[in-house]
Each structure stands twice: as C-alpha cells, then as structure tokens.
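Changelog excerpt

This revision adds worked examples to the README so contributors can see how folded entries look when concatenated. The first example is reproduced verbatim below.
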Amino acid sequence: MLCMTHPAIRPAIHGAWYLPNRRQLDLLFGSGRHYRYANVPADVARRFAEALSKGRFYNSEIRGRFACTQLDAELAEVA
C-alpha cells in the first residue's frame, strides 16, 4: 500500500493511498474532498508518488481518465 501525506503550505493534494490488489487510488484534496479512483495501474500510482508536483500530475495523468467516487459525499448522505 502506498500512503503519502504532504505538509507543504496549501497543497492541492493533502494525502494519497493506493491499494494495489484493488487498483484503487484514494486522494484527499486541499479542499477537504476525498475521491476514490478505480482501476488505476500500479505504474500510475508510483509515478504519482514520485511526482514533484502532485497537482500537476493529477491534472495531466489522473483527472478524467479513471472512474471516481466522491467519498465525502457518500458519507454525508449516510449521516
């Protein structure tokens, strides 16, 4: 499992978690929103982890390319 947090000032992405057996990438954005991306190849997750700019990598390699679910919205509906 890949797990990262980013203490930088006002980062676009605060944290990332990757489960290779599920090919699932969870991203926590600076806005507080939490998204789960499905069928993300391990290579994409690795390159994301290595990217100097997580926001730039997200915009060019992840956004709009993988199915995603907004998890905080699901939690709000349950509460």
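The second example, added in the same revision:
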Amino acid sequence: MRQAYWVAAIALALAAVLGATTAGAASDPFIDALPVGGAGVGYLLRFERSTYRGSEGAAEQLPLYLYEGQHAYLHGTRLGLKASAGDWRFDTFIAYRFEGFTQDKVPSVAAGLPAREPGYDAGFSVRRRTSWGTPYVEFLHDVSRSSNGTELRAGYWANEWRRGGLTLKPQLVLAWRDSSLNNHYYGTPDYQAGAGLDAQAAVYASYALTESWNLLAWLSAARRSHEITASPLARAGLQSEAFVGFLYDFSPKQNRWAPESRPTIVKVLYGNSSDCDMLQVVRLSCTTRHTVDNTDVAAVHVGRKLIERAGGWPIDLAGFVGVQRHFEKSYQDDFWSVMAFFKVYWYGFGWERWGLHTRLGMGSGLSYAEQIPEMELHDQGRRGRGNWKLLNYLDPSFDVRVARDTYVGVGVSHRSGAFGKSQFFGNVNGGSNYIYFSVESSF
C-alpha cells in the first residue's frame, strides 16, 4: 500500500498540471459532472502500463459522450439508470471492461493463445454522500459471455478539492474478483488463476478553460492480487492507467430548449452500401453504390432537440436513439443494429432569406450490431484483421425543409473503429458506409 500511496501522490501532482476527468476503471467519475438535461462530447487518449507482459504501449483513442437525464445517463463507457433518496444514490448500469486484448493486439507473451477480449458488465451500485466523502459498493457481472466473471468493489471518493478552474477528487478502491474473471484474462493451459483482491488508488480532475471547454485527465495505479501476478502472462509491479483529453459541455449557462411540450423527432431512412470513404461522400467526390456488395439498410431514428441556437449561433443540438435493419441479401441472414448519438445542426445559409431552408447535420455516437455487416467483413478481411460489434457511429447529412418541421435529405450511415487505435472499438481499422435518403418530421 506504500507504493499505491506514492503513485497516488504523483497522480495528484500530474492531474494538477494536466487537469482531468475520465471513464475510470473503478466507480463512475462523471456522477454529478453535468446538470440534469446536460450533454457533452469529448475526446480522450488512454495510456496504460498493462498487466500483460509484452503488450504494446501505444495511446488508445476514445470518443467521450455524456448525457445526464432525470433517471437515465450515458457516461462515456457506462450506460445506466439512477434513483436518489436524500444522500443515498442507487444505480444499475452496463459498463465496458477495459481488460484483455483483441486478436489484432495480442501481447507477445500470449502468442498462440486465444484472444482474451474485453467484455461488458451489468452491475448495480449504492453510494452515500457524507461530510467526509462518498463511500460506495458496486457489484458487477459479465453479461457478454466473455468471462462470466464477477467483481465486488468497495470504494471511497474523497470530497472535491477546488482552486480556480481546477477540481481534484482522489479515490481508493478494493476489488474482489472471482476465479472465473481472473482465469479468463490471466489463466493458461498450465496455470489456473483463482479469486483474489486488487487495490487501486486514483485521482480524477477537471480544469475549466471556459464555461464550455474542459481539460480532462485521470491517473490510477492498481496492485494486482497474487493470483494474477503469478500468471505467466502477467508482469510484476503496479498496473497504471491514464487518460488525457477534453470535453465540450453544451449545458453551462445555455438555456435548454424547453417549450411547453417538447416535440419528438422521427426520421426514417433507406440506404445503399458504398465503398466510398465517408469524407469522399461528404465532398461529393465519390457517391457510387453497390459496387462491392448490394447490401442495404433501413432505419428509424427517434430523438428530441436538447438545445436551440447554442450560444446565439444558428446551431441546434439533438439527441437520438435508433434501430437499423441490415438487408444482407445472399451474403448472410438479415439482422438488427442499434445506435445512440448526438447530432449538431447548422442552418446559417444566406438563401434562407428567400424561403429556402436547408441545414447541415453531423451526428456522432455509438452503434452496436447484432452481427457483423458484410461490408465490414469484406473491409476487415482484405486487411486480415478482426471485427467488432460495437463501433463509433457517424451520421453526416444535408436536409431541405419541405413543410413545417418536415425535411427530406441525404446522408451517410457510417460505422467504424478509430483507425485501429481503440480497444473500445476492438482495434478495428475500417468500417461500413451506407448512402441514404431520409424523411424527418417532428410530432
């Protein structure tokens, strides 16, 4: 614990230099980061001294999406429901587990062994705010059929320390991991990892550059149990992890769009597969369809406007969830995908004075597919790389208003990894594009 304390002290010093916030490996650091109805987007670089011997040390790229509802939230890699009673807070959630490796990023020590892919945990937590900090307990269990393991955490968040735009918040965690979890990630044919107790010290911070822009960072150090460090896959010493990035918060001092009844936005679209890059389609330098395969998609997006005329500019922000049907023709069975994303609209064109109302849109979020689309199987297969069901989702579009609150438009339904630099997206370097036509209206 002396080493953990020493690393935590360094973490505080570094965070004071960098500023910080993140989707931490322990309890959720974004609780209370935004007011109810608030939304934010950002970008993180994740660095790790992995427990695995011979693992790469390159920075990992992570998009950051935050939304805080009355009873639901999205905090980076955690999606949950919440309830409060006085100083008590209760959460149930699904969270991504930053552990293991994909088939495209196998540590040298694990060569020849099956990939130990990251998974998704379902969990619940109970926390209580006190005058001396916030203790909490969390229960997590793998629901992605990756490890089928269970983890129980007991942690403590110290009270925030503020000076100017800087906020620091240290954390201590004890985590009991069962044998299924440890053995999945660190077992070998000759070594069976049992249950064990890990200890972690971390610091979370944020530095407000303006009312909307924040620098982000996180630094943690974990001491693994003997059951893990005794594995031939693991290296000795502390496992360390850091995030550095930024967040743009749409909510500060921005009056949210709050009419007497907030209309629901419904958009339907139909798209054809295209081997053009998304940016080529946006620039209209490539718009060919069905050149590699003849697959199609049909989707429904449902959402609400969150902010109107942000900062006095002709810019609106909306939030959407969607369901998409993939028509794979003769390649494989048809299947579903779902997505959740924010979308920014800009409508500041000069010709609106003559009654022609148009807008540009850019959506960004996450997409989860029931199966891997044929486009992605082909795109990754020609590179000899693996695939991933959860990818980044982008939705650039151009719309023309044809009636009050009704638009017709064109766009691209795009799924991709982060150029092979994100474990969160399976280290995928590639994706799929569907050029679509759409109709959207508000009710």
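Reviewer comment on example two: The CA atoms of residues 122 and 252 lie 31 Å apart. The chain has a mean pLDDT of 86.
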